[in-house]
Amino acid sequence: xxxxxxxxxxxxxxxxxxxxxxxxxxxxxxxxxxxxxxxxxxxxxxxxxxxxxxxxxxxxxxxxxxxxxxxxxxxxxxxxxxxxxxxxxxxxxxxxxxxxxxxxxxxxxxxxxxxxxxxxxxxxxxxxxxxxxxxxxxxxxxxxxxxxxxxxxxxxxxxxxxxxxxxxxxxxxxxxxxxxxxxxxxxxxxxxxxxxxxxxxxxxxxxxxxxxxxxxxxx
Length: 219
Fold this sequence. Notes:
Helix content is 83%, strand content 0%. It is mainly α.
């Protein structure tokens, strides 16, 4: 029963981390509409993999890794903000043709899916705040990672739950959005691109602005 509790708790944590609408959600929605649910879901898996890495660091108490990530928080935050800004601007100025996009996805499916997963993994892993969020969530759920009886086995069950919860969200999101894929034409996709691109770029500007303010306060 304890292991079931740990998996369920991890599942809830995975959902809590994945559900808030942020840049990765917007990217997955946009890719689902442009390339289909498979591409959107694989993009989500990149984020789920990043969440799994942070869950491992938190759940197994990898203090050295956590300190390393914290020590490189500024370059990671800079890289994450720059990636968001680039993704946002690229999406905003893209003039999509869905038939061409579907054809391209079919011809280069393997490489496109690998790139889709890698890009969202990079966005997730370059956000040190996610590690702090996991630490807070793990602390908030009593008994997590074997707080009652610490062990690597109990921590592993929590990590499995986190990955399952995050993956479940991306599957539900891309499946739901995919249902509307047939109703979307080039014009609607262009509007969606402009809105999502603007919002993603705004996230990037916010991250970079926060970094600049933090550096100025340190000076």
